[in-house]
Amino acid sequence: MFTVEQIESAHGKVKTGADFPNYIKEIKELGVKSFETWVKDSHTEYFGENDFKTISESQYKDLAIADHSDQEKFIQQLKSHQRGETDYMKFCEDCAETGIEKWIVDLDQFTCIYYDKAGNEILTEEIPH
Q1: Which CATH architecture does the domain made up of 4-126 adopt?
Q2: Does residue 86 come out as left (phi exceeding 0), alpha (psi in the -120 to 50 range) or beta?
Q3: Neighbouring-strand partners of residue 35
Q4: What is the rounded CA–CA span in Å between residue 39 and residue 120?
Q5: Radius of gyration (Cα) for the chain, nearest Å?
Q6: Which residues contact 51 (CB under 8 A, 6 or more apart)?
Q7: Which of 16, 33, 77, 124 is deepest in the core (most CB within 10 A)?
Q8: Which residues contact 55 (CB under 8 A, 6 or more apart)?
Q9: DSSP letters spanning 53-118
Q10: Neighbouring-strand partners of residue 124
Q11: Residue 85: which residues within 8 A CB-CB, separation 6 or more?
Q12: What value does the mean pLDDT take over residues 102-110?
């Protein structure tokens, strides 16, 4: 199976949101089926075949997630990130500010779903591949 170190090596090539599709392709080739990233500290749970799971360490000190989501503002900030205008840390700060608690990426469906603290889907995106 895959390791967090392999995934982090692939993620190290991501400078902006514009690099995200290539990162997804690379970790899919490693055997990652899906992953769940928690905005508060960017720890991620990675899932593979046969119930395989590995978890990364926290990437930064906890961010406070807004209790109420602001979908419109989040979408504006996400688009800015995808154009390469913000780095990953700024994107996570924007997520926290707009009430995004986590996102789940499904590498079979090539989707990324963003959720608020209540577990509501705020946005479902298709990942280019």
Answers
A1: 2-Layer Sandwich (3.30)
A2: beta
A3: 46, 105
A4: 15
A5: 14
A6: none
A7: 77
A8: 4, 43, 44, 45, 46
A9: EEEPPP-SSPPPPPSS--HHHHHHHHHHHHTT-S-HHHHHHHHHHTTEEEEEEETTTTEEEEEETT
A10: 113
A11: 16
A12: 95
127 token code pair: 């990942």
- Residue the block writes with tokens 């055997």: 31
Considering the entire predicted model, what is its pTM? 0.90
Q: Pull the structure tokens for residue 12.
A: 């190290």
Work out whether strand 100-106 and strand 111-116 pair parallel, antiparallel, or are unpaired: antiparallel
Q: Coil, strand or helix: which one is 3?
A: coil
Instruction: Give CA–CA dist 13/83, Å, rounded.
Output: 16
Which one-letter amino acid corresponds to residue 70? D
Residue extents of the structural domains in the chain: 4-126
CA 85 to chain centroid, in Å, comes to: 17
Q: What angle do CA 116, 85, 128 make, to 5 degrees?
A: 65
Which residues in 89-105 are b (16+ Cβ under 10 Å) and which e? eebbbbbbbbbbbbbbb
Assigned token pair, 124? 């479902």
Q: Please state, in angstroms and rounded to a whole number, the distance separating the CA atoms of residues 35 and 48.
A: 9
